[in-house]
Amino acid sequence: MTDTAKLTALIAPEVEALGYAVVRVAMFGGTSDPTLQVMAERADTRQLGIDDCEKISRRLSDLLDEADPIEHEYRLEVSSPGIDRPLTRPQDYDDWKGHVARVRLLEPRDGRKQFEGRLGGVDDGNVLLTDVSKLGAVTLPLAAIDHAKLLLTDDLIAATAPLSTDGADRIQMEG
Predict the structure, then answer these.
(1) What is the distance between the alpha carbons of residues 52 and 45, in angstroms, rounded to a whole number?
(2) Given pLDDT bands bounded at 50, 70 and 90, which one contains residue 162?
(3) CA angle, 132 as apex, 128 and 137 as ends, to 5°?
(4) Where is the Ribosome maturation factor RimP N-terminal domain (predicted)?
(5) What percent of the chain is helix, strand and coil (3-state, nearest 5)?
(6) Where are the domains of the chain?
(7) Rounded Cα distance, 175 and 159, in Å
């Protein structure tokens, strides 16, 4: 099994040196199609374009070839976290405060493992969710969260509109 914490410790400084922030490092696909996924974003805009992905991919390919931290063959995937991004760092819960998220716990709490509500931020190691169906507001320990992600809403779409749409209507053909 691949140690993603060690991979993150190896990868993050390289990504940050390029001016990006690592959102998540994960291995997917098991033994049939292993993929090392690196989600990143521009530290200044929280967005990531294809050119950014290419730049990070080149840097990480060289690093990973040299360090060889994964014992088997795998595919490297560098991507943006997307609009319905995972919430992986404590700061994400503050940065996306006011938006709707789905949070799944490692173990059930009050008979539930999954909660949907509006993010109220993080305080003292706990995430506040408001407008949770039948519960109102709940406080969930960060350490108890298995995974969390933003849910697609009109407010989220408006908040994550691209900084520039230049070229979005063109298809570039390379020959």
Answers:
(1) 12
(2) low
(3) 40
(4) 10-84
(5) 25, 35, 35
(6) 4-79, 90-159
(7) 37
Residues in the chain: 175
CATH class of 90-159: mainly beta
pLDDT confidence band for 52 (50 / 70 / 90)? very high
Residue 55 belongs to what H/E stretch? helix 50-67
Residue 149 CB contacts under 8 Å (≥ 6 apart), including other chains: 84, 85, 86, 87, 101, 102
In a 13 Å sphere around the CA of 158, the CA atoms on its Cβ side amount to 5
Residue 100, both tokens: 């709707």
Task: Tell me the pLDDT tens digit for each residue of 60-101.
Answer: 999 999 999 988 899 999 999 988 899 999 999 999 999 999
CATH superfamily of 4-79: RimP-like superfamily, N-terminal (3.30.300.70)
